[in-house]
Backbone:
């Protein structure tokens, strides 16, 4: 900053405040003056007309600016307009742990997509062959075959947490590749599940169940399980005693979970069925298979024997019980051998 020019000799000084200002300026300069740094440099730094250039001269501030402008091509005229560094509130952890969302560009408003909302989205970064079209596409929340894809459930969960205009990156646990980027440009008004009539929920649940059965028969238990799960979430909001459809859905879900190598979840699904129908043979058989996989041979034997008590010719239960008996004998032999070594 240039100091005020000195009045020429002989020229009348008519500015008393000007002299006081110069005294204050000299005092400030003396206090802040450091070795080898002219005081004028300090004053120039304080009131430089180009505050952006000051930030760019500082490496740490440059990094912050780059992080804040990721995905934003607009220039900013002053330092006050520079986006703030990422805050904890910019991270959202999906409750089931399937991904972490980092907000790159904040959306506007408070509304989020709901059931039936038609969303215009853009996705980048999914692995080749995932089936998700690159670029802009329209997806309807809660409806459509896109939800059966491997990426469908992930995208739907993320969209449920986004506002219009929001851009976010999704980091998947155990995935070392670059994060997936998702942009929600716009969406139409939808409805929460509690806003649906009971008949509407039951109708949607039947559609999900029918589609899940098709997928299961086609050898796709993973997508079938997602269909059954969505149907159950719709029916869980019905008033007691609830829909009898839940029994069938839990039993079918258990079959999917066994094929997916999830015996613990399969046993839980069967428990839900047997709470309503203690004599449900398919649930008893599937829980017996799940308990055997978990190493609970006594519980497995009890369930399979209940099946055979009602249906002695049930070949699947006979074969599974035979496997459990053989596995039990092996466990007993191993235990006996260990005891002999210990006390022999």
Residues:
């Amino acid at each position: 900053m240039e100091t005020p020019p000195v009045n020429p000799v002989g020229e009348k000084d008519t500015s008393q405040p000007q002299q006081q200002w110069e005294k204050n300026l000299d005092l400030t300069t003396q206090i802040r003056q450091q070795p080898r740094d002219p005081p004028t440099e300090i004053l120039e730094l304080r009131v430089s007309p180009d505050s952006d250039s000051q930030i760019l001269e500082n490496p740490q501030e440059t990094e912050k600016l780059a992080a804040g402008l990721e995905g934003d091509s607009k220039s900013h005229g002053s330092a006050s307009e520079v986006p703030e560094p990422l805050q904890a509130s910019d991270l959202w952890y999906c409750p089931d742990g399937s991904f972490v969302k980092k907000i790159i560009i904040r959306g506007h408003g408070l509304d989020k997509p709901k059931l039936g909302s038609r969303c215009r989205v853009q996705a980048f970064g999914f692995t080749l062959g995932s089936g998700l079209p690159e670029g802009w596409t329209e997806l309807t929340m809660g409806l459509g075959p896109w939800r059966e894809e491997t990426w469908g459930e992930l995208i739907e969960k993320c969209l449920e947490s986004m506002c219009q205009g929001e851009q976010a990156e999704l980091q998947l646990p155990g995935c070392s590749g670059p994060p997936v980027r998702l942009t929600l440009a716009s969406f139409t008004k939808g409805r929460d599940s509690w806003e649906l009539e009971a008949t509407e929920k039951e109708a949607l649940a039947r559609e999900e169940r029918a589609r899940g059965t098709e997928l299961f028969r086609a050898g796709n238990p993973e997508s079938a399980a997602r269909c059954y799960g969505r149907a159950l979430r719709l029916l869980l909001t019905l008033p007691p005693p609830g829909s009898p459809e839940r029994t069938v859905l839990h039993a079918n879900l258990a079959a999917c979970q066994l094929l997916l190598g999830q015996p613990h979840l399969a046993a839980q699904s069967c428990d839900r069925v047997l709470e309503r129908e203690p004599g449900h043979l398919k649930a008893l058989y599937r829980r017996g298979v799940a308990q055997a996989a978990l190493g609970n041979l006594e519980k497995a034997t009890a369930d399979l024997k209940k099946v055979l008590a009602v249906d002695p010719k049930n070949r699947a239960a006979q074969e599974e019980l035979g496997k459990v008996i053989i596995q039990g004998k092996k466990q007993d032999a191993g235990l006996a051998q260990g005891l002999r070594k210990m006390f022999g």
The mean pLDDT is 75. The first helix runs from residue 16 to 32. The beta strands are 91-93, 100-105, 118-124, 135-140, 167-171, 180-187.
